[in-house]
Amino acid sequence: MNSRQRRGVILLLLSVVCAIGAFAGVLSVMNDAKSKVGPEVTAYQLRTDVQPYTPLATSQFEKIKMPKRWLSPNAVTDLAHIQGKTAVTTLRQGSLLQSDMIVDQPALRPGQQEVAIMVDAATGVAGKITPGSTVNVYATFPGRHEGDPAQSKIIVTDARVLDVGRIAALDPNADYRDRKPSEAVPITFALDATDAQRVTYAESFAQRVRLALVAPGGDTDVSAKDRTYELANDK
After folding, report:
1. Integer Cα distance of 159 and 200 in angstroms
2. Is this structure's pTM higher than 0.70?
3. What is the pLDDT of residue 8?
4. Those residues with Cβ within 8 angstroms of residue 134's Cβ, 6 or more apart along the chain or in another chain
5. Pick from 29, 148, 187, 235: CA 20 to 30 A from residue 82's CA?
6. Which candidate, 162, 161, 46, places its Cα nearest to that of 102?
């Protein structure tokens, strides 16, 4: 090997060493940056503006990835947390969703009030009705005068259940005129003033109060002729 060849080999080796050094330097910078940034996590940002007190839906947000260390502790990382929530203020497009931006939807709408009545634990609820259910309220009344037929009436339709209490044993020494059950469940409704009076009247004077669960999206409208039932008129 002559001197020119030796110089070529030496230059080649120097180039390889420099390339290895440069690659090691790039890896070191990348590892240092990665160690400073940390792992990435899921977050959500607004697709569009959302007005205050608007119920939230998953379609209003888009998923993004960002370093965990840059995410605030109150950032929402699971859209399951928006169920039953509304915007507490105007949410701007592109903003990251934070837990302090949302609140629970109000239980009562304007003009509504909470009304609780005791319902027969065995026949009125039967373990199927839960908070958030929509029900029709039926009541059975005796005839107004002796010999008049008993009637079953739909007194309230589309009643929203706010809470279902625990089964309670009624006082066996109280005067229930032999028409009240031995166990009952307190059911709390969100009703307007007229419907609140109807269910209160039924609890006080009906022989039985029964709740009929309405399927989600079902038609709760009942015509006037179908709101009262008498066996004698059944054809």
Report:
1. 13
2. no
3. 63
4. 158, 159, 160, 161, 213, 214, 216, 220
5. 187
6. 46
